[in-house]
Design brief:
The complex is a heterodimer of chains A (594) and B (80). Chain A has 594 residues and is of the alpha/beta class. Helix content of chain A is 41%, strand content 18%. Chain A has three domains: 231 residues, Rossmann fold (3-Layer(aba) Sandwich), CATH 3.40.50; 145 residues, 3-Layer(aba) Sandwich (Rossmann fold); 179 residues, Gcn5-related N-acetyltransferase (GNAT) (Aminopeptidase), CATH 3.40.630. Chain A is built from 24 helices and 17 strands. In chain A, strands 15-16-14-13-12-11-10-17 form an eight-stranded mixed beta sheet, with helices on both faces. In chain A, helix 6 links the parallel strand 3 and strand 4. In chain A, helix 2 runs parallel beside helix 3, helix 6 runs parallel beside helix 7 and helix 21 packs across helix 22. The longest helix of chain A has 26 residues. The N and C termini of chain B lie close together (6 Å). In chain B, helix 1 packs across helix 2 and helix 1 crosses helix 4. The longest helix of chain B has 16 residues. Chain B has a single domain, classed as Non-ribosomal Peptide Synthetase Peptidyl Carrier Protein, Chain A, CATH 1.10.1200. Chain B is 59% helix and 0% strand. Chain B is mainly alpha-helical. The chains are: A alpha/beta (594), B mainly alpha (80). At the A-B interface, helix 1 and helix 10 of A face helix 1, helix 2 and helix 3 of B.
Chain lengths: 594, 80
């Protein structure tokens, strides 16, 4: 599937489209989503490309396309087709060709300001209408640069220039994006410039096919939209596993010695690696987990990472594997220690043989083509592995948390029994309602958690808000701190009330806090709620997926009795709360709800 | 390249584009002879042919194409 890696192999993506789609459609357990594409130009080819990019990311999308150019009418006045389709995501594919009026050379600044307000108003009204009607994420293109600059260079700064006008309109879109977090900009401006603006704007494609860009650029647009979609649904990569020699510095530390490796501002080759290290460090700052997988002696690896001119230090990595084991084996161990699937990993190594073995042994790991150091940043940055659609406080602290987890699992070894170890963690749990500040994180958890997730119910922020407000639901969430770190919000339980019964519609927990007893705390809290509402029975459901087998007997262990199971192994469990034996978790508990 | 050689390459492109292994085209083949050859498919075919032969058709050429043969004539005319 190399044609999905940067730079895209657009020739194959067109020629072998049908075959590629067939192969990708054969994957198991795909996320099914409905995407409405509202276009201001022809969207058919874009949709076909978007379809295969999403399949590549494990998302099997069904599409609605507005009639040619009807994006605004569909949104504002409704269309039966769109209403019945009930989209999960709406993508508005517009370009500079869809701007109604451009400034003329005789216009005053006031004229142009009014024009700008009116053009922006048209879009804002549409977004508000879509939000009111569909409550779903909206992805909106910003505007690419128009095909000519009437005044040459002046066009970009003079208020009458089309280039200037487009740039101001884009700023207004960004302000809206700042203030509406279910709204995402697809950066068409960047894509077109990165592609090459003259070729992008080749007018034959507009005049013959009403296509907003040249055909060869369409897969890049599709990739960009697919990156946003997969990020919204929690299918981003989470960790970057790096080699050391000739990846993070030039040369081989074991052979060349610490003085011999190239890093730092002295020589140009050293600068290239310094810049790459600082790029990786910035990735860490937005929540990407870093780890090392290197064929080296540990002492040499650490010496290299402690190089005074290096940007990355040993503490920036949650794990450093420097040994002579096969790299796929190391990577698998890192994944297990962090309780992440290997499909959450990107592996970066300058050596094609190592890349080959990792991609052959661990399908699902992304292995970009890192051929030469000066291209490392470009390749990673164009791949969209870590597309950011939401940035929570938890993301920013992630390395600290995984560090704490790694420390905790090392500490574990020295205690007489597990309870003693748990006591030593000095944990505190906070049980709470779905307060507004938690909504974003809760939605994120429902989309990201796969392993400790009983029903794998995916929810948008709007879904969460609806349940939080409804008197038919009891919604609990829990935060856990320990002596190493604040783990943040880690567990969510949603219960539907029906007469004297609680139905557990969702129970999930972040794998960060596995085996801490947090689930016991939540169970106690749930039973207290049941007593408060004079409910006598709690029913739990387990729906198996390829990833959640760790909780298949969860309700059994909590004291429930299995009452039903169908041929797909979906099971139903019942708890008579008069028989409930409260758990004794090793932590202090604050119920913030009362 | 001879007309027949170009035709055989173009035929391969058609098999991929229509995802039909058994598709055989000739110089006289037109859009109405092949199921699914609509304006969208036309856009795709042109793009694939341009990619394959490393050339571009201009707008008059695209509009003026009567059948596969006239498309191949243009490719040959470009000295490919």
């Amino acid at each position: 599937m190399d044609y999905f890696n940067y730079p895209l192999d657009t020739k194959t993506l067109y020629r072998k489209k049908a075959k590629v789609r067939r192969e990708l459609s054969a994957q198991s357990s795909m996320l099914k989503k409905k995407i409405a594409v509202l276009g201001g130009s022809t969207t058919n080819e874009l949709v076909e490309q978007l379809n295969i990019f999403l399949l590549y990311y494990g998302i099997d999308a069904e599409f609605y396309q507005s009639e040619y150019g009807q994006y605004w009418q569909d949104a504002m006045f409704g269309s039966k087709g769109l209403d019945q389709f009930a989209p999960d995501i709406i993508y508005v594919h517009t370009s500079w060709r869809n701007i109604d009026v451009f400034p003329e050379i005789n216009d005053t600044m006031d004229d142009v300001d009014a024009m700008l307000e009116s053009e922006y108003g048209k879009f804002r009204a549409m977004w508000e209408k879509l939000e009111e009607k569909f409550h779903c994420p909206v992805i909106q293109n910003n505007f690419d640069r128009p095909n000519y600059r009437l005044m040459g260079n002046r066009d970009i700064w003079d208020y009458r220039g089309r280039s200037n006008y487009v740039s101001r309109l884009n700023q207004k879109f960004y302000e809206y994006a700042q203030n509406n977090h279910n709204f995402y900009i697809n950066d068409l401006e960047y894509i077109s410039q990165d592609y090459g603006l003259s070729e992008w704007n080749h007018s034959l494609y507009w005049h013959m096919y009403k296509c907003a860009m040249c055909m060869d650029a369409i897969p890049y647009v599709a990739q960009s939209v697919a990156n946003i979609v997969k990020s919204i649904y929690g299918k981003n990569k989470k960790a970057l596993v790096l080699d050391l020699d000739n990846t993070l510095w030039g040369g081989i530390v074991g052979d060349d010695g610490i003085e011999g490796i190239k890093i730092g501002m002295e020589v140009s080759k050293g600068q290239v690696f310094t810049e790459f290290q600082s790029y990786c460090k910035k990735l860490k700052d937005i929540g990407v987990i870093l780890a090392i997988d290197s064929k080296n002696e540990m002492a040499n690896a650490l010496a290299g990472l402690n190089h005074p001119d290096g940007v990355l230090k040993p503490d920036d990595f949650v794990d450093i594997k420097a040994n002579w084991n096969p790299k796929d084996q190391n990577l698998k161990e890192i994944a297990d220690e962090l309780t992440l699937g290997v499909d959450s990993f990107v592996f970066v190594d300058d050596n094609p043989a190592e890349r080959e073995i990792v991609s052959a042994q661990l399908p699902g790991v992304a292995v970009p083509l890192m051929d030469t150091a000066e291209n490392y940043i470009r390749v990673l940055d164009h791949s969209g592995y870590f597309e950011v659609t939401s940035l929570s406080a938890e993301d920013i602290k992630k390395t600290d948390m995984y560090h704490a987890k790694a420390k905790a699992s090392k500490a574990e070894a020295t205690f007489a029994d597990y309870g003693e170890y748990l006591d030593s963690l000095r944990m505190t749990a906070y049980i709470d309602d779905f307060k507004p500040v938690y909504i974003q994180r809760i939605a994120q958890l429902t989309n990201k958690s796969n392993q400790f997730n009983l029903t794998t119910l995916r929810c948008t922020e709007d879904d969460i808000k609806i349940m939080q407000k409804s008197s038919d639901y009891v919604c609990l969430c829990g935060r856990l701190t320990d002596k190493f770190a604040d783990n943040g919000l880690v567990t969510v339980v949603i219960v539907q009330k029906a007469e004297d019964t609680f139905h557990i519609r969702l129970w999930l927990m972040s794998c960060r806090v596995l085996k801490r007893g947090m689930e016991d705390t939540m169970m106690n809290a749930l039973v207290e709620e049941a007593q408060r509402y004079s409910v006598s029975k709690i029913i739990g459901y387990y729906y198996p997926t390829v990833k959640n087998s760790m909780v298949k007997d969860f309700y059994g262990m909590m004291g429930f009795v299995k009452v039903k199971e169908d041929e797909d192994k979906n099971s139903e469990w019942e708890l008579d709360i008069s028989h409930y034996d409260p758990k004794k978790p090793h932590m202090q508990i604050y119920n913030c709800r009362v | 390249m001879s007309k027949e050689e170009v035709l055989s390459k173009v035929n391969e492109i058609f098999t991929d584009a229509f995802d039909r292994e058994d598709l055989v085209i000739g110089f006289e083949t037109t859009a109405s002879d092949v199921e699914g050859w609509d304006s969208l498919m036309q856009m795709n075919l042109i793009e694939m042919i341009e990619d394959e032969f490393g050339m571009r058709f201009d707008m008059d050429e695209v509009v003026g194409m009567e059948n596969v043969g006239s498309m191949i004539d243009i490719i040959i005319l470009r000295g490919l």
